[in-house]
Amino acid sequence: MSDQEHTSSEQLMRALASGDLAAFDQLVLRHQKPAWAIAYRFLGDRHEAEDVVQDAFLRLLAAASRYQPTCSFKTYFHQIISRLCLDRAKKKLPRCLDAMPDVSDSGPDALGEMEKRQDAEAVRAALAALPPQQRLAVVLRYYEGLSYQDIASALEITPKAVERLLARGRDHLQATLKTWKDF
Amino acid sequence: MFGCSRVRRQLGAYLDGELSPKNRAVVERHLVHCQPCRIALESLHRLERTLQSAEVPPAPPSLAWQIMAKARERQNTEAERNVIRLGHRLATPRPWAFKVAAAAVLVFGLAAGSYMGRSVSQTVTAQTAVQADPLAVYNLDYLADAPKGSLADSYLALASSDRGY
After folding, report:
1. Is residue A133 included in any domain, yes or no?
2. Mean pLDDT confidence for A1-12
3. CB pairs below 8 Å between A and B: how many?
4. What is the number of structural domains in chain B?
5. Which of A77, A78, B9, B117 could join A154 in a cystine, given CB atoms 3.0 to 4.6 angstroms apart?
C-alpha cells in the first residue's frame, strides 16, 4: 500500500503541481466514482459522462500548478465538474437518455428488478426535464449530499439561490413524477 | 408564528437540515398542529427516497486508465513543447543580448588592461631599483672595499659607466 493512499487530496494536488503523476493517479482512483455519478446523472449519457469526467481530471492536471487550497479539494473539483456539465448542457439539446442495461426476465427477483428499473427510468426522465441549473443542484444535493454552501460554491451562486433552485426543482419533480407515483 | 405558505416554502430546507435553529423550532411547532403541512413534508420525504432509489450504472472499468494514459500523453507533449520553446529561445537572436555581451567584453577588457598595466609598472619599478646598483647587478659586492686606483676599483668604475650611471 503506497503512502499516497493516506495523503489528503489537497496534498496530492501539491505533489501533482511538482510533476508527480502518481499523485494524479491517486486522485483519479479516489474521485472518479463521484465524478462519474454526477456527470452521468446530469447528462444521462455514458459517452458524454465519460468525456466530462476525463475533461475534468485533465483540467485538474493543467491547473495543478495554480491550485491554491483556499477551499476543500472536493469543492474545487465539484466546481470543475459543474462547469463542464453546464457547458455541455448549453451545447446539447435535447438530452438523449441512455437505455438502461437489460436485466434477465426470469428468476425470483425479476419483478423486483423490473420495478427498480422502471423507477430509475422515471427518475431519470424527470431529472432530464429540469432546467440545467436546477438539475445540477438536485444531483449535488440528493446524490452527493452537498450542503447548500457547497452547492453554491460549485455553481458559483449564493446559498439563497441554491435554496430557490432546489425548491423549484422539487416542485418540477413532484409534478412530473406524480403521474407515476403518488406525491 | 409562521403561516402555512411560509412553512411550506421552508420545508425543503428543513428536510435538508439547512434552517437556522430558530426557524427550525418555528417550523416544528407549526407541524405539530398542521396536518396539511405534515402531509407536504411526507411528500417531500417520498420524493427524496424515490430520487435516491434510482441507481447509477458503474463507471466503465477502463475509464481511470484512460484518464491516466491521457495525462501522461499530455505531460510528454508539454515536455516536448518546452524543449522546442527553449531551443527557439536560444536560437533566436536578441539585439539586447548582443549589446549586453559587448558591454561585458568591454568592461572585462578595461579591467584586465588596467590590472595588467599596473603589474607591468610594478615589475619595471622593481627592475629599476635593482639596476640602480651595479654591485648588485654584476655581483661585484666583494670589490666594494677595493683601494682607490687599484685594478678592481677601475673595473668597478668601468662597470658603473657601462650601465650609464
Report:
1. yes
2. 79
3. 96
4. 2
5. A78
Banded pLDDT at A1 (limits 50, 70, 90): very low
Q: Tell me, what amino acid is at B32?
A: V
pTM for the full predicted model? 0.70
Cα distance between residue A12 and residue A5, in whole Å: 10
Cβ-based interface (< 8 Å): residues of A facing B: 19, 21, 24-25, 28-29, 32-33, 36-37, 40-41, 46, 50, 53-54, 57-58, 61-62, 100-101, 116, 119-120, 123-124, 138, 141-143, 147-148, 159, 163, 166-167, 170, 173-174, 177, 181, 183
Residue A148's domain is classified under what CATH number?
A: 1.20.140.160
Q: Could you give the residue ranges of the DSSP H alpha helices within A44-179?
A: 46-63, 73-91, 110-128, 132-142, 148-155, 159-177
CB B72 to CB A148 under 8 A?
no
Show the domain range for A19. Answer: 3-177
Q: What ipTM is given for this predicted complex? A: 0.82
- What range does the domain containing B147 cover? 122-165
Instruction: Please report which helix (H) or strand (E) contains residue B76, including its range.
Output: helix B63-91
Question: Which cell numbers hold the place of B75?
Answer: 505531460
Q: Which has more confidence, A103 or B89?
A: B89
Least confident of A95-104, A149-158, B29-38, B94-103: A95-104
Q: Is the residue at A22 inside a domain? A: yes
